[in-house]
Here is the input.
Amino acid sequence: MRSAPRLLRWLAIAALAEWLISRTLTRAAIYIPKSEAMLTAFRGLTALGQVAATLAGLLALMAVVWIATRPGRASILSLILLALVGLSLSALFLPLVQWTAVAYHALMLAAVAWMLAVSRAPTWPDRVVVLVVTLSLAASRAYLLIASIGAVGVAGASALGPAAFALGEAMFVLLSIVLGLRFGRAAPKWAWAAGAVLTAAFAAMRQAQPAMTGILSMWSAGLSLYLPWPAYAVGLGLGLVGVAGGLRSGGYGWAMVLLAASGFAPQLSTQAFYGLVALWILADPDDGQRVPQAVVPTQREATAH
Amino acid sequence: MRRHPDRTLFAALAAALVLTFFRVPVASSQGLTLVAPYVEGELPLDDPAAAAWAQATPLSVPLSAQNVTRPMVLEATVRTVSARALHNGTELAVLVEWDDPTQDDTAVGVEAFRDAVALQFPLAAGPPFFCMGQVGGNVNIWHWKADWEAERTARSDVDSVYPNMYVDQYPFAAGDEPVAVAPADYSDPNYLPALAVGNLLAAAERRSSVEDLVAGGFGTLTPEPPEGQNVAGFGRWSDGRWQVIFTRTLRSPEAEDVSFAGGRVYSVAFAAWDGSNGERNGQKSTSQWVGLQLGAVPAGAQPEAAEARGLFNEGFYWVALPSIAVILLILGLIGVMILASRWLEEK
Here is the structure.
C-alpha cells in the first residue's frame, strides 16, 4: 500500500507547484516590468509551471482511478469516479456541452455527496471538517450543474446558481478557519508566526492595492472576495496553520494542500480532481485514516533508511 | 526496510515532460460552452425572432458585478444573459438577450448612461484574465452600445436633452442657430479635432452600433481604427428585454481581431451595463470565460470553409490522433501504476 500513498504525496507536491507557480507567481509577475534577464527567468518559471500542471494532471487522473479500484470500494462510487475520468478525457476531444456537461457536473456532485455519505471520520471535529469540505465542493459543483441545466433549456436562469457560488466561497473561507482551529494545536510555532505574517501581508496588500489583491485572489484561488476582506485574511493565516498542523497529525496536511491547490471554483478537471482526492483522504472509511499515516514516512521507515 | 523506487511516478514525470513539450493538454475545462451550429444560407443579422435562431440552443451565462478594480459596482442589476450563436461558414452571429426594465439609449445628459453589452475573445492561446485581458494576453472586444444603435436612425446631441438650449454662435459651422449643430454642418472638419482624427465617439454617422476594440489589461482599452471596424450590430428593446445581435465574418484580416473556423473551440466572455443603475466603463456585470464551439462545416459546403471542415479534416489527423495516443498512454500509465501497486502490496 506504500506505493499509492506516495502517489498522493507526489500529487500534492505537483499540485502545490502548479498552483503556486502557474496560477499565482507567473500570473502575479505579468504586471511587473521585466528586464531581459527577468524575462528569461519568467519564461523558465512558466515552463516549469506547465510541466508541474501536466504532471499534476496525470497524477490526478491516476489517483482517482486508484481510488476507484481500491479493494472493497463501493461499486457505485467506483463507477462514478471512472465515469468522471472517462468524461474528462473525452472532453479533450469534444467539449462537454449540453447533456454531457449536465452529466459531468451531476456525477461530480454525486461523487462528493457519496463520499460524505460513506464517511467514517472517527471524531466529531473530523466530521465537521468533512462536512465543511463537502459543502464547499458541493456548492461549487452545484453552481456549474445549475448553469449547465440552464444551458440545455430545461430551466431558465436561476437565482440558485449565484447563491450556490456565494455559499461555496463562504464555505471555502470557513474551511480554512475550521482547519486552522482543528489542527492548530499540532502546528509548530513557526507556522503560527508564518500564518500571522500571511494575514498581515494580505491585509496590507488589500489596503494598498485592492484591485491587484482581487485579481490575484481570483486567479490564484478562484475567490471573488465578496465577503469582508478580514475573513479572507484570517482564513489565509489559519489555513497555513492548518496545513502545518495537519502534516504533523498524519497525512491530513496533504489533503489540505490538495484542497488549497484545488481552490474555489476550479477551472480545470485536474483541479476538480484535487478536491475529490482530498475529500477521500479525509472521509474514506477504510483508507482515509490509514493512508495519511503511510503518506508521511513513519519513524520506523525513516530509521530503516 | 528498502523502499521501492517510484518507477511509475518517474514515468509519469517523463510523460509530463513529453506532453508539455508537444503542448498536449491532459485537463479539460469545467466551464460552460456555447455551441454555434452550422446553418446554411443567410444569418438573421437583424431579426432576433427569426426561425433560424431556434437551431441554436440558448446558454444562460451568469454574470456578477465587476469588483476586481475601481471603479467597481457593488450591486449590478444584470445577473444573467442568454446567448445563442450561429455560423454559416462565412459569418458568425451571436444573439444576446437580457432583462432590463428601462431602455437607456442615450448618454448625452450628465447623469445619463447607456445600456450596453460586450463580447470578449482572447487573441492569444490560453485565455488571459477575463477582465480586459492582460499584458501579453490581448483580447478583442465587441462593444454594442444602445445609444449608438439609436443614433443610427436619429442623431442625439445636447439639444435632444435640452431642447430649449440657446447657442450664440458656432464658428465655422453652417447649422441653424440657436440649437446645436451636427458635425456635418462644419465647413472644415479640422475644427472638430476628434472627428478629424477618426475618433469613433465623434463620428458624424454610425456605420455600426458595435465598437471593435482591443485591450491588454485595465486601462488599455483601445478602439481599432475606423477602417478596422468590422463588427455589425443590431439591438432591439421590447417589453423589458434587450435583444442584441453581433455579426462578423469568421475570418478577419485585422491583426487585432479574433478569427474563427468551423469545428474549433474558442473562449468568449460577456459583460453588460445597465445605464439606469449608473453603470459605465468598469462598473458593469461580467462573466467568466465561456467556451464557444463552432459547429463543423459539412464537406464541400463552401469553398472558404472547406479547409476548416471540423472533425474529419486534415487537421483531425494531426490533432486527434496524437491525442488518442496520449489518452492511451495515460490509460496505460494508470494501468501500470495500479498493477505495480497491487504487486507491491502482495509482496
